[in-house]
Specification:
With 164 residues, this protein is mainly α. The chain is 59% helix and 9% strand. A 3-stranded antiparallel sheet has the order 1-3-2. It starts with 7 loop residues before the first helix and ends with a helix.
C-alpha cells in the first residue's frame, strides 16, 4: 500500500477519523472540536482523503459512509521512515541519539526494549604456555649451565698453563 503525504490540515482530520474508524459526515460535524469547520470544508477534505487512499466510501442511500483504510500505525511508520531518510541518512542510531539527547526517551525506557536474555558464561581458559617468556623470565637455569661450562673451560685453560 503506497502512502501519500498529508498536509497538516489533512492530518488533523485524520486524527479524528482514526478515532472513529467508520463514520458519516454528520458524525464528523458532531465530534469535531470547536471551532467547527463548515460542512463544505469537511466534505472537501473527505474527498481529498478518499483520492489519496486514506478513506474509502460506501454509498448508503443518499449519504456516504467513510471508512479508514490507512491505519494510524502505518502512517506513523511512513512518517518515521521519511524523517529518517531525509534528515538522518537512514540511520536509526542517529534518531536514537537525538531522542536520548533531547530527553524524549530515557535509558531507563530503553532497558525494556533491549532486555535481551543472553546468558554470558565465563569461558574456560587454559593456562597458556609461554615458552619464550619462561626462557626470558627464568634465565637462571641457562646461566648456571653456561656458567658451569665456562668454569670447566677456565679450569682446562689453567691446567694447560700449569702443564706448559
Amino acid at each position: 500500500m503506497k502512502i501519500n503525504h498529508l498536509t497538516s490540515a489533512e492530518e488533523n482530520f485524520m486524527k479524528l477519523f482514526w478515532k472513529m474508524e467508520s463514520f458519516y459526515l454528520k458524525d464528523v460535524m458532531e465530534q469535531h472540536p470547536e471551532p467547527k469547520p463548515h460542512q463544505n470544508t469537511v466534505s472537501t477534505y473527505l474527498k481529498i482523503l478518499v483520492e489519496k487512499g486514506y478513506l474509502s466510501t460506501a454509498k448508503e442511500g443518499r449519504i456516504f459512509k467513510y471508512t479508514v483504510l490507512v491505519p494510524l500505525d502505518e502512517y506513523k511508520k511512513f512518517l518515521l521512515k521519511e524523517l529518517s531518510h531525509h534528515f538522518f541518512n537512514d540511520s536509526g542510531k542517529e534518531i536514537l541519539e537525538l531522542l536520548l539527547s533531547e530527553k524524549l526517551i530515557t535509558q531507563e525506557d530503553m532497558k525494556g526494549y533491549f532486555d535481551l536474555k543472553i546468558e554470558i558464561k565465563p569461558a574456560k581458559i587454559e593456562e597458556p604456555k609461554f615458552e619464550y617468556a619462561e626462557e626470558i623470565l627464568s634465565p637462571k637455569k641457562e646461566k648456571k649451565t653456561k656458567g658451569k661450562d665456562k668454569d670447566k673451560e677456565k679450569d682446562k685453560k689453567k691446567k694447560k698453563k700449569k702443564d706448559s
